[in-house]
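=== Given protein ===
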Amino acid sequence: MNTRTLFLAGSVCAVALLMASSAAAQGYEVITVSNGGTISGTVKWEGAQPKVPVLPITKNPDICDPQKKGTRDLERLLVGPDGGVANTVVYLKNVTKGKAMDLPEARRSLNQKTCRYEPHVLLVPANADFSMKSSDPILHNIHMVGAALYNIPFPLQDKVIIRQMRKPGVVSLKCDAGHVWMNSEILVVTHPYYAITDEHGNFKITGVPPGDYEIAAWHENWAIAREETVMDVDSHKEVRRPIFSDARTWDKKVTVAASGAAKVDFQLSDK
């Protein structure tokens, strides 16, 4: 074995140990799951769909509105033609041990592009670094509230900024630079048994130790509860920004057999 191989092996071991110790600090034990099962299913919309909130694009339309639509969908409720609800977080509750963190890398970093937060819903392990950048050649900022409290300006295009997400919970993101339609949600989590539904409402959770579980579908909520008046840090003018209603959760029970496949479906509604 050459020096490079030894170095890479040592690096992989170091990362694994760091992830294991981070999980243990949050009350989760990483173990070998040799007979894990799979939970899959769909999240569908049931009944009449509520009116999806949109806001006028009132600033930097050359960057924020390349298709010249004039408005921006707030992306709080995405229901496909087949009724599938995208961006729903499905997870196991009260998990104390299982596989190592393997959350999708695409959901662990954020870009600000055409005045949107991409992706709209993120999953970040507790105590992990969260990287952010802006592809737009204008001033943005990321104002976090909830389980993390950061307020970070992005005056430079494509400059990556990293912050550690120490506390588990939900973090809401908004822009203080006048782009009041920009919003996103981060779930900072202590175990890997989370999935985010695709555009058809499909999800899959793998490597689940055999047993009985509670499984939940979490949705950020689509309703605007009220508005707040804030100062645009760029223009120094007052603007009105939406505040959304509390997230909603639907719970079910599921049994996972050794090396088995369980199926759970959720129906969301405005009731």
Observations:
- Confidence is low (pLDDT under 50) at residues 1-25.
- The first helix runs from residue 3 to 25.
